[in-house]
Amino acid sequence: MVAELRLDSQRHHQYFRMSAEQMDELLSFIGPEVTRYMASGDSLLSLAYSYRLGHATVMKSVHMVCAAIAKTMMERFLPRPTQDTWEEVADGFWKKWNFPNCLGALDGKHVTIQAPPQTGSQYFSYKKTFSIVLLALVDSNYKFRVIQVGDFGRTSDGGVYAGSALGRGMETKSLHVPPSTSLPGAAHLGDVPHVMVGDAAFPLKPYLMRPFPGLNLTHQRRIFNYRLSRARMVVENAFGILSSRWRVLHRRINLHPQNVDTLVVAACILHNFLLAPRENMRLLEEAEQREKPATRTQHGRKQGLKRGLSCEGDLLHLFQLPTRQCVVAGQDGLKAFLKGVKNVYICKFDLLSSVFV
């Protein structure tokens, strides 16, 4: 069957979610065994019947292939960031999304799983499903730069980040982040640190920016929220591309949580391996079609995966979410510093433009 599919490039791509050439390159990394399990989302039993193999054989093959991908391809396609890497990411965000000194967009994704036995409510999330959390830092081209997989579904994005290697590394300054520098074209405003961007679920830190909460914002603060939201949406798009390519993520995965962790890591590595601009746009369209019917904002405009960036009204709607008090409340010095960093960005964006672009 595989030999026949190689004769039709379109059918081969639909079946394996990659071209025959990309399949050959992947096989050069992990050997002769590869799986359709992630691409189709079919159950292991269904695949066993399709290939006329035993259920245990198929299950073992899936586990072995995912582990092989994680072991042999991690260093090349999801390496530990260096100072040069961070600078490359920051340059990409400035050129493509007009947000300077940005180290990446940060967010969490819940991967639905079958409820593990004797775990109580540990994996039960606010979405009323059992899940594990994928925390990801994404660059301007939808590429995963840092991931952490396996936290309990009941844990908030902020809680997952606080306990992650990324969160601890940023706090202890051990991740080779570039030193503070002035924003492009605004040297008179002084040096500001490099930052990640996240939504209201994350705490405000010197290295982590989140939007201003509330609706009654000044024009300058709305511009800041727009720019931050524009940069942050790349991580949402990356999750959409990931799920559209590996449709197993659209289903409830009936594997042991430890094996789900390996599968998700493998999916993220293959996402980076297969990354291509044209393919990204097609998968984004596919992900948007899978979304539930979009809700309407106060201006009557539809809000979707990409349409959410289309206008000021949609952006304000984007932040009508419950927010938590900043974790630095009470620490006057640090709070003043964080406010100063935000004000520098506000001044920079105000210099660039007085309208939403």
TrEMBL record:
It holds the Pfam family DDE_Tnp_4. GO terms for molecular function: hydrolase activity; metal ion binding; nuclease activity. Transmembrane segments: none annotated. Its cofactor is a divalent metal cation. Residues 106-272 form the DDE Tnp4 domain. It is found in: Nucleus. Keywords: Hydrolase, Metal-binding, Nuclease, Nucleus. One of its GO terms (cellular component) is nucleus. It comes from the Eukaryota. The keyword Transmembrane helix does not apply. Belongs to the HARBI1 family. This is DDE Tnp4 domain-containing protein. It comes from Seriola dumerili.
